[in-house]
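Dear Dr. H.,

I hope your travels went smoothly. While you were away I took the liberty of generating a structure for the chain from your last submission, since the lab meeting agenda had it listed for discussion. I wanted you to have the full record in hand beforehand rather than looking at slides cold. The sequence, exactly as received, is reproduced here:
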Amino acid sequence: MKAQKISVQDYRELIKANNLKDVFLFLREHTYYGEFLKKLDQENLHRSEFEVRLNDLKVQETEKLMHYLYGTDRAFFKMLLVRLEVESLRVLIRGIARNGDLESLRGLTVYSQKYTKVPFDRLFRVKDWEEFKKLLLDTDYYRVLEIYKDVSLEQDLVMVEKSLDRYYYDLLKNRLLKLDQKANKDLIEAQQRNFDLLNLVWIYRGKKFYNLSREELIAYSLRGGFEITDKRLSNLVNAKNVEEMKEQLLNSDYAFLFNHTKTIDLYMERRRERYLYYLYLRLFKEGSASLGRAVAYIHLLDFEIADITSIIASKRYKMDAEETKKYLIRSVD
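The corresponding predicted structure, in token form, is as follows:
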């Protein structure tokens, strides 16, 4: 499976492509994404649906690997599909907030038909928020969403999305704790470091762009990180400003997020993802536990899809090759 992944030379070809259509044709004809792109019309390409269909490969690969896992390992691995499920629900909820036709959003959702308990086919046909919630009555998502009486762009939409995220990460942490802690030490550390990084990005942006209160920052931060303990989290949230927050992280493993003053906001997400890319690459190569290697493989596939998506975006903005490479997670010379 690893041997089929996009090579550095493939990246070079995609970067050199003249436009969106050329990127599409290369992926369809020369990569393992081809079978998921065949139904798209090359003469009438919609960038969003094109990008979403790349994730169909992730569903297939995850389902394939689940056959080799059992018990708590299998339950944890399934979280990779739960993440896609949550993202698909977010797409539909945004559609409701915009009073849109949910059927038209079918092409923008990706989930495992084999393992989901969410009745997506029926959700695509609903007309309002109450009907949407009722269809989720037999799932955990109903408990998350029932308290919201309405969703709109002006009111509860952001809180609904944050609640879905909280549900996902609480469930992920719960299943992480049930794993064999010794056998999966490196995998657990990788997940905890992701919690750290997500918290740092959340707190930084919450302070700089949204002027969020201490209570709001704490409420939607993730517990159970590797370096960012509850005490350190509290100190970061209590920092008077972004500069004070950065000073607290000068000697941490995460100082790299803030080292480049002029490009912090532009490349923060890419730096976070690149850190995790090398973390999971090492786990895939050195991990002794089969679960760790399987999880690392899917995350590496995630980063590959993210890079292809960045290349697609570069065509829209007519960026040259060198500029495009700056936004990629994987280094391409």
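Two observations you may find useful: The mean pLDDT is 94. The chain has 17 helices and no strands.

With kind regards,
E. W.
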